[in-house]
Amino acid sequence: MLLAASLLLGACVASPPPPKEVFYRFLPIETQPLPAPALGGSVRVERLKAEGILSERALLFSQAHSTGKLEQYRYHHWSEPPAHLLTQGLIHYLQDMQAADKVIAADIRTEVAYSIDGDVLRLERILDDGTDRVVLELALRLQQFSNRELVLQKRYLETVDVESDNMTDVINAFSQARQRIYISFAEDLKALPSP
Questions:
Q1: Which of 33, 53, 57, 80 has an alpha carbon within 20 to 30 A of 47's alpha carbon?
Q2: DSSP character for 191?
Q3: d(CA 145, CA 115)
Q4: Is 18 helix (H, G, I), strand (E, B) or coil?
């Protein structure tokens, strides 16, 4: 019994510690202010919605050859729920580019001219035999606040290749996808006819 106990204790001591959990956030976006706001009045950005495992903090991945199967990384997490990170990023991006007279967060309850809301539809890494990529898909909507008229509704999908297997490159790719979607959304706002 002593021999078995010592062997068990030795195995416990010799086993490596579990990997350390790592937390990620999107990289900041540099932007230039518009010469004039795309929207007159103020805009409130509601929190983007995410359902199921998209609402959790673990990074998601799928295998290109395994259609429909989605998995979570065990030790790689977003620093906050991704819908929150994407919402805050959109608010800061629209504020920095001065897309409207004022851009405010959902918790500021005041009269506004417009509201923006949307859904996180995809946020995953696709593993594909050395040609990995990330996919980000958002559905974004712009409404006039007074009469709830839908002014803009569109799905934005971006796919970005990942340069290496390093998770830093994965987050860089996610950040590029997010930036491209924000830029496309801002271009659509600028293209709206004046009220």
A1: 33
A2: T
A3: 6
A4: coil
Interatomic CA distance for residues 76 and 74, integer angstroms: 6
Tell whether 112 is covered by a domain: yes
Which structural domain range is residue 68 located in?
39-190
Alpha carbon distances (Å) from 117 to 10, 56, 76, 86, 158: 56, 19, 28, 11, 19
Split into its structural domains, the chain has a count of 1
Q: Enumerate the β-bridge partners of residue 103.
A: 43
Residue 140 sits in a domain whose CATH number is 3.40.50.10610
The first and second tokens of residue 67, run together, are 């259609």
- Is residue 122, in this structure, part of any structural domain at all? yes
- Strands (DSSP E) contained in the chain are 22-24, 39-45, 58-63, 71-78, 100-105, 114-127, 133-144, 150-161
Give the tens place of pLDDT for each residue, 23-65.
999 999 989 898 989 998 999 999 999 999 999 999 999 998 8
How many Å apart are CA 41 and CA 124, to the nearest integer?
35
Q: For residue range 122-180, what is the model confidence (pLDDT) as tens digits?
A: 999 999 887 899 999 999 999 998 888 999 999 999 999 998 889 999 999 999 999 99
